Structure formats: C-alpha cells, structure tokens
Amino acid sequence: MTDEGGKNQGMKVMGILDIQNTPCARESILHGAGGSLVAGLVHFLATSRVKRSFDVGVAGFMLTTLGSWFYCRFNNAKLRVQQRMIQDGIKNKVIYEGTNLDPTQKKTGDQ
Amino acid sequence: MAHPTQLGFQDAASPVMEELLHFHDHALMIVFLISTLVLYIIIAMVSTKLTNKYILDSQEIEIVWTILPAVILVLIALPSLRILYLMDEINDPHLTIKAMGHQWYWSYEYTDYENLGFDSYMVPTQDLAPGQFRLLETDHRMVVPMESPVRILVSAEDVLHSWAVPSLGVKMDAVPGRLNQTAFIASRPGVFYGQCSEICGANHSFMPIVVEAVPLEHFENWSSLMLEDA
C-alpha cells in the first residue's frame, strides 16, 4: 500500500494524535514530558509526597504541552503567512515584470 | 485521494483546506490533553485507598471545573470562527462553473465566455483502464485553472445531491430550485476526487466528482477542444 506523497505511517499517541506528521506535535509532547518530569521531581524532592507529585507531574505535562503547542503553532502560522506572501510576491513579479504594474518599476518611477 | 485504511484527512489542495487541517490538529491536541487528564483521573480514582463519605461541597474544584472548560471552549471557538468566516469569503472569482446534480451523474456548465457544457458519468468498473480508480473515475473531468479563484454554483435537477471534494475543502448541497455558491482555489496542479454526499437514490454511491487543476494555458486548450467537440 502506497502512502500519499511518501509520508510515513505516523506514530499515533493514544490512537489519535499523529506525532510524526502533525507540525509541532512531537516537540510539544517532548517538552511536556520534560516539564512533567521536572515538575514532579521538584515537588517530590520538596515534599516527599509520591501521589501528589504524580498529580503535579500530570498537571505539569498538560501545561507544558499546551504552552509549547501554542507557541510553536503561532510561529508556524506566522511563517505560513510569510511564505504565502513571498509566493504571491514572486508570482506577481514574474507576471508583471516589465509592465506598468511592476511594483519595482513604480518605486524607481517616483524618484 | 483517499487510500485504504485511511483515518485522517487527505492532503490539502487549497488554502482553505490547509487552514482546516491546521485547525483540526489544534482541536485534536486539546482533545488529546483532555483525554490524558481523564484517563489519569480514572486511574487515580480506581487505585486510591482514600474514601471520604462526608464531602458536602467544595468551592475550589467547582470553580476550576467551570472556568477551565470555558477557557478551553474559547481556545477552540476563536480559530473555528476565523475559519468559518474565511470559508465564506468570495474573492473576485476568475471563473464560474455551474455544477448540476442529476440522478445519477453531474453536469458542468462553463458559460462565462462560450456555452460549454458536458455530463460527467462514472466509469463503470469493467471499463476501467489499468491504474484508474474504482468508483471514482469519470468520463469527463471538471477542469479548472490552478491558482485561480473559481466559483461553483451548485444545484440539482431532480432530488437532493451534494457536491463535495475533500482535498479542496469543499462541500455544498445541491438543492432543486435553489442555487448554492461556493468557491475554492486549487493551489497545485493535480486530480482531486470526490463523491456525491447526499443520499439520492439507488446509484448515489456511483456519481463521483473529479476536478482536474491545470495551468491556465492547458485549461484554455482543453476548453477550446471541448467546444470543438460539442
């Protein structure tokens, strides 16, 4: 069975989240795991309460994953907008070069 | 196009579908986190030895589990509404095509410049050439120029149908006596498949939609050829 565009069959966490093919997912989960470990460990070292440390670890996982996810997706969205603007700019430059609609020509014309 | 055992969306072929994919990733991540939390709480509840039969109220947790879901819903609603309004934008289409649903085929009319119209019937399984897709191929494809906004006016001649192409992020009901409008931009050349998405009788599953996005000069050549053949 061939996959679309040569994509690998991604690893699905909990059967739903495709980490490999979803942008920012892998980084967010890894940051979440790290944050969970740190939060749980620090709490345990401070209080020696095992169960509560696990709770803090899970809360840390959720908050770190969410924070990392939003930050990465926001930057990703900005990059996509820039990419689209650059693509349109290249296309317009190719189409309008040498005509009176050429944006570079307008700037030199104003001087 | 779809492949066997596929669970997720097809690759996006239009900017709107790209945005929908991104929103889906966003919503799925939130769903994943909620599921993780619920699973953890279930395991904690099942494995605890603590029991307290005298809890009457608990203001703090009630406040948390009221405000937190509200915040989560706002985080989902804002991008959702953004895409909803994005999908309703019709930005000066370069081409208008009428897609009419019949029992059981689609017909397309390109009437901007000349009167070009043709029917699009499914290719029966026994007539498929090697490499063609069963129940998806048609004898005539709807050809559109790539990277150009295209408006589709969808209606039906008999019963309800629905014109849908998943990779373009388009689905619009074809209602007899009503003209529905949708639009898309095919960001890359290719062949995009869809199927009728409203039950319309015995052969509802056998009236597919095929959209072929080509560079503008190829589109012009194709339309000239089609007019000559008509």
How does this model look, in words?
The complex is a heterodimer of chains A (about 110) and B (about 230). Chain A has about 110 residues and is mostly helical. The radius of gyration of chain A is 24 Å and the shape is elongated. Chain A is built from 3 helices and 2 strands. Residues about 1-5 of chain A have low confidence and may be disordered. Chain B has 2 domains: about 15-85, Helix Hairpins (Orthogonal Bundle); about 95-225, Cupredoxins -  blue copper proteins (Immunoglobulin-like), CATH 2.60.40.420. Chain B is built from 3 helices and 10 strands, in the order ααββββββββββα. In chain B, the strands form 3 sheets. Chain B has a 5-stranded mixed beta sheet. A 3-stranded mixed beta sheet of chain B has the order 4-10-9. In chain B, α1 runs antiparallel to α2. The mean pLDDT of chain B is about 90. The interface between A and B is medium-sized, with 29 and 24 residues. Chain B: It catalyses: 4 Fe(II)-[cytochrome c] + O2 + 8 H(+)(in) = 4 Fe(III)-[cytochrome c] + 2 H2O + 4 H(+)(out). Chain B: Its EC number is 7.1.1.9. Chain B: This is Cytochrome c oxidase subunit 2.
Topology at a glance:
The complex is a heterodimer of chains A (111) and B (230).
Chain A: E1 12-13, E2 17-18, H1 25-47, H2 50-96, H3 103-110
Antiparallel strand pairs in A: 1-2
Chain B: H1 15-47, H2 59-87, E1 95-102, E2 105-110, E3 116-120, E4 142-145, E5 149-156, E6 161-165, E7 170-174, E8 180-185, E9 190-195, E10 208-214, H3 216-229
Parallel strand pairs in B: 1-5, 4-10
Antiparallel strand pairs in B: 1-2, 2-3, 5-8, 6-7, 9-10
